[in-house]
Amino acid sequence: MSTEAIQQTLEAVGQHYDAQKMMTVRHMTRDAIRQISRAVKPGMVEEDAVEMAKDLLASLGMLRGWHDVYVRFGSNTTKTFGEASDPGVVLGQDDIFLIDIGPTWKEWEGDGGDTFVTGTDAGKARCASDAREIFHEVRKHWVETSDSGKVLYEVAVAAAKRRGWVLNMDLSGHRLADFPHAAIYEGPMAEVDFKPSRQLWVLEIHIRNADHTYGAFFEDMLLEDDFFN
User: Fold this and answer.
1) Is residue 210 part of a domain?
2) What single-letter DSSP state applies at residue 81?
3) Which of 35, 39, 178, 229 is a Cys-bridge partner for 16, taking CB atoms 3.0 to 4.6 Å apart?
């Protein structure tokens, strides 16, 4: 099968796909992440933060998700998202936490993640900032080139290494569509040999420090610069 035919197959959408509705869900997802982050406070136990996030998403009509709701504190920010958190972790005064949600609103999927810090720990603040910077470095490479998903993640690995972080390749991008995208393709974007199309793919950046004591995460749709102003 040709590369073009493979791309056409992996980028298929379902009968309910609506590009504008996908953008609506993206906006709702980013807004929900901000709301959750404002409600997370030092002294909270991670499990309580997850329940709070689920309650907030339910109030927005976005409880049903295509993946679990993740709010990770401290050392749990290093974990891959199929991996259970260590229980009972309490958010500290100089700490780091990440949010990753994949809500479904009606027939359309959202997905987004970001990282936040409490206090003034410079290393953790830089980690959170660098996850965003690496995301945009890779995204801009996507805008400016015709490179494949595989090459995009080679760029991401190098960008993380330059900044002193290790990129977690267990989280290396994926499809997004009308629910469920997994019926079309549930593999990683890092394995595709074509340029991923706008809005149909999510770019994920998960970095960790060398000691695996903390990490940071950022993800959003592959879109042009104007969508991030």
Assistant:
1) yes
2) T
3) 178
Tokens of 97: 């936490």
- Those residues with Cβ within 8 angstroms of residue 56's Cβ, 6 or more apart along the chain or in another chain: 32, 35, 36, 39
In a domain, 224, yes or no: no
Say if residue 63's pLDDT is above 70.
no
Please name the residues in contact with 163: beta carbons below 8 A apart, sequence gap of 6 or more: 130, 133, 134, 207
CA distance 67 to 144: 31
Neighbours of 111 (CB within 10 A): 24
pLDDT digits (tens, 9 = 90+) for 92-102: 999 999 999 99
Containing structural domain, residue 76: 3-219
Query: Would you say residue 211 lies in a domain?
Result: yes
* Through-space distance between the first and last CA atoms of the chain, rounded to whole angstroms: 39
pLDDT single digits (tens) 5-28? 999 999 999 999 999 999 999 999
CATH code at 203? Answer: 3.90.230.10
> To 10 degrees, the CA torsion angle through 66, 208, 154, 174?
0
